[in-house]
Amino acid sequence: MSTHKYPALHNAMWPGLVGKGPDSEPPIDLDTMLNMTAAADVDGVKFDGVDLFLSLPHTDIDSSDDDLKALADKLAAKNLKAGSLVAPVWPPTGGGSAMGGAEDVAKFLTQVRKACSIGSRLKGLGIRQYGVIRIDSATGVEDWAKDPAGNTKKIADTFREAGKIAEGFGERLAAEGEICWGGMQSWRRNVELLEQVGLPGTVGFQADMAHTMLFTMGFNAPEDRLLPEDFDWSQGEELAAAYKKMASALRPWTFDFHVAQNDGTVKGTGSHDKTGRHCQATDPNGKLDVVRDAGAWMRDDSGAVTKAFQHICWDGCMFPNEVMMTQQTWNDILGTMIKVRDAHGWD
Question: CA angle 90-267-185, nearest 5°?
Answer without folding.
Answer: 55
